[in-house]
Design brief:
Layout (H helix, E strand, L loop, with lengths): L1 E7 L7 H4 L7 H16 L4 E8 L5 E3 L4 E3 L8 E3 L13 H12 L7 E7 L4 H13 L4 E6 L18 H14 L2 H5 L3 H6 L5 H11 L6 E7 L6 E6 L1
Parallel strand pairs: 1-7, 2-6, 2-7
Antiparallel strand pairs: 1-9, 3-6, 4-5, 8-9
Length: about 240
């Protein structure tokens, strides 16, 4: 069953080496993410699954030790998922690479780690079922869920300004902070796609995993720097 969850956004700028001179602007966000990961460790899970958005060719599972990199962004920085011998196979999608960096930053050693890339088009029912399967696979499962809110919060945002973005993000943030699985399950995939909210599918995987778990939530961060909704929440 699900014993804890942390929700974090996944912009590469979360990694100071990538953000370079702009790194101090997101210090508060980084601190909130590290606090959320600490909640996972305190739950003493048997297994940690990192869930994040992935392109069509990057969905599916990633074993512990899977490699990731920020070299495509011009930064000489490699990461791997969990403290294990490097695994072969596919490289982590960028959101899972950001998660791997977070886990390395906290020196994660509380449990084995694996990754799951979730396609943006995965329909809500399948997201929920995936979450239920993850929760049932171990006696004490924890999730680190990566995903951004709308990218349409301001005129300078990647998706320009959409007046629907702020209400969408407000409901998502409220649901994440309240561990409201029903509200997360009800998020509209079509609207999320139009608002470029990459977190929708991973959040709905979390909703499925959290059904009936009786966890309490806390919203640790809710801001929209650069016109993109970034939320951090911890469930325990």
């Amino acid at each position: 069953m699900l014993v804890a969850a942390a929700v974090c956004p996944c912009p590469p700028l979360l990694v100071p080496d990538v953000a370079a001179g702009a790194a101090p602007e997101l210090d508060g966000l980084r601190a909130a993410c590290l606090d959320a990961v600490a909640v996972l460790a305190a739950a003493r899970p048997d297994r940690l699954v990192v869930v994040g958005p992935a392109p069509h060719d990057g969905d599916g599972t990633y074993p512990q030790g899977s490699p990731g990199s920020f070299r495509g962004l011009g930064v000489d920085l490699d990461v791997q998922l969990g403290a294990a011998d490097p695994a072969g196979g596919r490289r982590l999608p960028q959101p899972l690479a950001v998660a791997a960096w977070l886990l390395e930053r906290t020196e994660w050693a509380a449990s084995p780690v694996e990754g799951l890339g979730v396609g943006a088009a995965l329909e809500s029912g399948r997201c929920l079922e995936t979450g239920r399967e993850l929760a049932a696979a171990a006696e004490r499962t924890a999730l680190l869920v990566m995903g951004d809110g709308s990218a349409c919060r301001t005129v300078k945002a990647p998706g320009y300004l959409d007046e629907r973005a702020e209400p969408f993000d407000a409901e998502a943030a409220r649901a994440l902070g309240a561990a409201d699985t029903a509200a997360l399950a009800a998020l509209d995939p079509g609207l999320a796609r139009e608002l470029q909210a990459a977190g929708r599918a991973p959040w709905q995987v979390l909703a499925g995993a959290g059904e009936g778990a009786g966890l309490n939530g806390a919203l640790l961060y809710d801001e929209a720097p650069y016109g993109v909704g970034y939320f951090v929440a911890a469930w325990s």
